[in-house]
Design goal:
By secondary structure, this protein is an alpha/beta fold. It is built from 11 helices and 5 strands.
Length: 216
């Protein structure tokens, strides 16, 4: 008996529905991928990039990790970014966090969780940097939401500092980096009004980062 047969059944039904809507869909998809978007999001199972944006397979290139972090030592993430920018020529990179993120919540606490503590070290540093302002937010959920937003803006800044993105802009390549947050409770995407399309705009990200926490 096939293990997880229901997933194969679901796949068959999905494939047949796609072919019913567009008989040549998979034939065209097999020839090449040409997405306009790179999505860098959280590994959380409740935040599926294609479904929540209404995009089909082939429309979005995806990288996911815990708490949607961009770190200059993470060659997995950087390799995805390089391939997306230099080979696929994506026009938009979307860094999308989500409210209710377990990684963000862990970064705000003192509990030792194991290996993940090392991964979340930079997020913990971000929390400490703005801790004085964050603890002034009385509502626990709003405080956590604020750090979710701060984290996205911080990662936009980190990505814009990479040699991959900087060199793309120096070549005159059309590329924009966006910061969004997804609300699990309502299924809606929220634009944080952070969009960088050139290296001259990068300092604005830090101004937005500072202003966002001051406005809370």
């Amino acid at each position: 008996m096939r293990i997880l047969k229901h997933l194969f059944d679901n796949n068959e039904a999905w494939s047949e529905q796609i072919k019913a809507d567009d008989p040549a869909f998979f034939e065209k998809l097999a020839l090449q991928q040409a997405p306009e978007y790179l999505w860098i999001g959280c590994s959380d199972s409740r935040v599926p990039a294609n479904q929540l944006t209404g995009l089909l397979p082939g429309d979005v290139f995806v990288h996911r990790n815990v708490a949607n972090l961009i770190m200059h030592t993470d060659f997995n993430c950087l390799s995805v970014v390089q391939y997306a920018v230099e080979v696929l020529k994506v026009k938009h990179i979307i860094i999308c966090g989500h409210y209710g993120c377990g990684g963000v919540k862990a970064a705000m606490g003192d509990a030792e969780l194991g290996l993940i503590d090392n991964w979340l070290a930079s997020l913990k540093d971000l929390y400490q940097r703005y801790r004085k302002d964050l603890i002034s937010v009385e509502d626990d959920q709003l405080r956590e939401d604020a750090l979710c937003e701060l984290n996205v803006v911080e990662q936009v800044a980190n990505l814009c500092r990479t040699s991959i993105v900087r060199h793309a802009w120096e070549r005159g390549q059309a590329l924009s980096v966006h910061g969004w947050v997804y609300g699990i409770q309502d299924g809606r995407l929220h634009d944080l009004d952070v969009c960088v399309s050139g290296k001259e705009e990068t300092p604005d990200v830090y101004r937005i980062l500072q202003q966002r926490i001051l406005d809370k």
